[in-house]
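Protocol step 4 of 6: structure prediction from sequence.
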Amino acid sequence: MKGSLEADQLIKNWPMRTISVSFSVLPGQALALLGPSGCGKSSVLRMLCGLLAPDSGRVLLDGTDVTKVKPYRRGIGMVFQDHALFPHLNVEDNIGYGLATLGVGRKERRRIAGDWLSRFDLSGFGKRKIESLSGGEKQRVALIRTLVMKPGVILFDEPLSSLDAPLRRRLQTELRSRQQELGYTAVYVTHDDDEARVLADRIIRMEQQPDS
């Protein structure tokens, strides 16, 4: 697992503003993009993972230009604000969804899901329905679903914003410890100063800059 990531003069022009960023993240580091709603934080994540094409600039992964590479070929994981879990699938099948697309057999997917659920203190949750989970449990399942694909880089788009304050603080600490334990490179989007300080080694502040 490597995971160096660089945004090289990425620019995206919108009718009312222009997003312009440059930064690099070393393997195993955690970076937070901090700023108010509407400043373009989520758009930066979408450019990094390939869901949004920049107007200019490059995305480099381990030194390789992946700007025009399809999202599913970049090896970058993404954890969304709403978790993006499939409500019609149980926990086990949500976790194994990406593995199934790679041809991993059902028995092996179950084994992998069980191992990861145990690591995240969710043993026995494999057959649970998504609707039966708490917000914190959904967040863990979403993270596990990303981790089983073994990405070197994981992007987090305000993954804790919908949780109540006590749970949010607890999961901030858990996310940080998991990132350090497993060694993946992380980029977090948040509007919360305290959260950024807990989650990240380094913080980049983004400001809203309307076009003149």
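Step 5 (inspection) to follow. Helices lie at 41-49, 91-101, 106-119, 135-147, 165-182, 193-199.
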